[in-house]
Design goal:
Two copies of one chain form a homodimer. Chain A is α+β, with helices and mostly antiparallel strands. Chain A is built from nine helices and eight strands. Chain A has two domains: 67 residues, Orthogonal Bundle (Arc Repressor Mutant, subunit A), CATH 1.10.10.10; 172 residues, 2-Layer Sandwich (Beta-Lactamase). In chain A, a hairpin with a 5-residue loop joins strand 7 and strand 8. Chain B binds a DNA duplex through helix 3.
DNA sequence: GTTTATGGTCCATTATATGGACCACTCCTC
DNA sequence: GAGGAGTGGTCCATATAATGGACCATAAAC
């Protein structure tokens, strides 16, 4: 009995065997989720997923019938459906920061004026769950709810990466190297390594406009009761608003909110 | 070949064709969601879904790889995964009562002492999304988050049913008759009809212990901006605490919270 | 009236999921 | 400690169910 349990690397195509339509379905589901604001169009989903059109439509149809997706009668666009919402609310019992975390983001964005984010770690990536805009008029829209980036890319993501043990940092960077090379020209494996070191020294993560020039971010990790980083709280603003002086003001606020969440996670053990 | 389709899912049997594994996957997903508190065991999922064991395991495996489910290394039980949570948070932008609604439930349960529920309509069924317990020491555990009942079964569910136009009431009762006969001995199509009439007259729904003797409930519907009932807010308590006198106190409070939600739904059009 | 987008559908082909039978392990009981 | 009964997990020959190239429909643009 050899059966090597492949702890799959970044691109998760090596199926355990015998269920490709489910993989395709989940892929499409997440794709639609990412585009949910305005809805996802069939053609776009076809190209972004690489599936044949009839296949994509068949799968989408099944998801609509199952209630995980809705299709707008008029525009024919796909949106997340009621069942997805129900599922998420049930899952929130286990992952459940939700309501409380968003309160914290609102506090942060109101007192700082900038935009606050809650992200959740998902294997070797990070997914932006919520974006709460502050009153300051110049707002970066680089990070949106639903966006998914490799660990280390962006402030919150870097905070989580740096909070992992060394071997996992290694593994994450190695697994994502190809994607980073292709999609994040300002980044590199070496840069991530030194960014992790610096983040650990500083006690917070800084993204000096590496995703989009001029759009800076700071972030801290939120650890579960076992000490593993699962969420990140971060703030984004233009470079001028994140100089060293102001960062010294903001970081304690971020850390305070992160601690609140950590306490909530301890209290709600499922 | 006569494939005997287990009627488990209630209404979703007329597949458009060519995607049965997705239907199975979603079925299992919801099944796990319902049992998420303690996790779902393979054997139970096999019997409740009617699938063959290898099939169930293959599908569950695919869902785990996709991140929609987690499997506990030690107990081997299945739980909802991070990806389900992410999906739900993204869907919350469209269905988004979430945080705010739970505030309302907390207010209700604290001031009344009883247990408050938020349920969402899902086609011809209702799904309990959240249960907020009040301080009163005798608590009914008849309705749990994740539970799914036909429209009309239970107070919140009846409130939603009664808020639908007549033809849809007809359709819902007709579609659910078989399930009701089988699983809800205290109910019948005729009883539902008169319950709807009474609910409309009274302005609220009453469940006088029909699901479980002694466990009463009252509920009101929450309508979306188009006037269609989508959510229900309800309270559960023992019979003594829901007599006519106390109901006259409680109903206005329920209605006030329902209105708040309706306003929130109007403000967040998406 | 053609062009070029879109969404949607058909159906012969075969790659795909299927499930009966079986194994491995653990915890009982006697 | 042999048998039993409960788990979770796996094989693999079979035929079922998903596949996708080609095609149709509709709407707007030119």
């Amino acid at each position: 009995m050899k059966r090597v349990r492949s702890i799959k690397t970044g691109t998760a195509e090596t199926s355990g065997g015998g269920t490709q339509s489910i993989e395709r379905a989940v892929g499409l589901l997440l794709e639609v989720g990412r585009a949910d604001q305005h809805g996802a169009r069939l053609t776009d989903l076809v190209t972004s997923s690489g599936l044949a059109k009839p296949t994509a439509r068949r799968v989408l149809g099944a998801l609509v019938r199952a209630g995980l997706l809705d299709q707008d009668e008029a525009s024919r666009r796909y949106h997340l459906g009621a069942e997805s919402y129900v599922l998420g609310m049930l899952a929130a019992r286990r992952f459940g920061i939700h309501a409380r975390a968003i309160d914290g983001l609102t506090r942060l964005s109101q007192t700082t004026g900038d935009t606050a984010f809650l992200s959740v770690r998902r294997d070797l990536h990070i997914v932006c769950l919520h974006r709460e805009e502050g009153p300051f008029p110049i707002r970066s829209h680089v990070l949106q709810a639903g966006d998914r980036h490799p660990l280390g890319i962006g402030a919150g993501s870097l905070a989580v990466l740096a909070a992992l043990p060394d071997d996992e940092v290694e593994r994450a960077i190695a697994a994502n190297t190809a994607i980073i090379l292709e999609k994040y020209p300002a980044y590199s494996a070496g840069l991530l390594q030194s960014a992790v070191t610096r983040t650990r020294k500083d006690g917070y993560a800084l993204n000096p406009g590496l995703l989009m020039k001029g759009s800076w971010g700071i972030g801290v990790a939120v650890r579960d009761p076992q000490g593993r980083p699962v969420y990140a709280i971060s703030l984004a603003a233009i470079e001028d608003r994140l100089d060293e002086v102001r960062r010294r003001e903001l970081i304690p606020m971020l850390k305070r909110e992160a601690e609140k969440l950590e306490h909530l996670l301890r209290d709600a053990p499922a």
